[in-house]
Amino acid sequence: GTLTNGNFSRIAKISPNGTIAGVANALSDNTLKQQIFCATPVIPTGSDSIDPVFYCIIPQGEASDNGAYITQLTDSGEIIATTYDSSSQPVISLLSKGKSHPLESILPPSSGYGLEEIKAINNQGTLLVTAWKEGALETLLLTPDRDTDGDGLPDAYENAHQFNPLSKNNPLADTDSDGLTDLLEFANATQ
User: What residues contact 87, with CB distance under 8 A and at least 6 apart?
Assistant: First the structure.
């Protein structure tokens, strides 16, 4: 199978519980692009079978013009992948719940760290990484979807928009006075 308007897909990884990650050619903006997807097995409630009846296929992140490569997959569908931006530079991202979290937004250069390697990822999307800082290699745990203050806005989003991730913000506020609440801005990936 393939995604809507696609003409090809390939499976890149299969987790022990049968979750599948792959890359499909899919039509986007009248151009054939590579779209990473996750397919989770669905077994009907009350079924005696351990074989899935069908798979729930969810596109992950934005389609790429320049290639997409999956390196890791968890049972719950978190994916580590490399795509390439318009200038053919690699972008390593955590893909989870249909969204893309570029590692540069999770561990920005302004932090002083330089990502060396992703060692592991768990089923909640927490990453175990090694990164360089001031000439020393350190091991870090990164949680891209973490919302430390519980206000509905992930820490990475709050950091990127000069909010304090340790202090509850009112997600219904309209900080930039454009008619959209901060929570809607986050949900729509607008500013």
Answer: none
Give the pLDDT confidence score for residue 137 in this predicted structure.
Answer: 94
Contacts of 145 (CB under 8 A, 6+ apart): 96, 97, 101, 125, 154
- What is the side-by-side strand order in the sheet with 54-64? 8-14, 20-28, 31-42, 54-64
Three-class secondary structure of residue 9 per DSSP: strand
DSSP characters over 45-104? TT----S-SEEEEEEEEEEESS-EEEEEE-TT--EEEEEE-TTS-EEEEEEETTEEEEHH
CA distances from residue 78 to 59, 67, 118, 166, 185 in whole angstroms, order as listed:
12, 19, 13, 25, 24
CA dist., res. 98 & res. 38, Å (int): 9
Name the band, by pLDDT with cuts 50, 70 and 90, for residue 47: low
Burial of 7 (C-beta count, 10 Å sphere; 0-12/13-18/19+): exposed
Instruction: Report the sign of the C-alpha dihedral through residues 149, 154, 155, 158, in that order.
Output: negative
pLDDT at 53: 57
Which pairs with CB-CB distance under 8 Å and at least 24 residues apart come from 47-56?
52/18, 55/20
Report helix, strand and coil shares of the chain as percent, to nearest 5: 10, 45, 45
Q: Cα(42)–Cα(112) distance, rounded to whole angstroms? A: 43
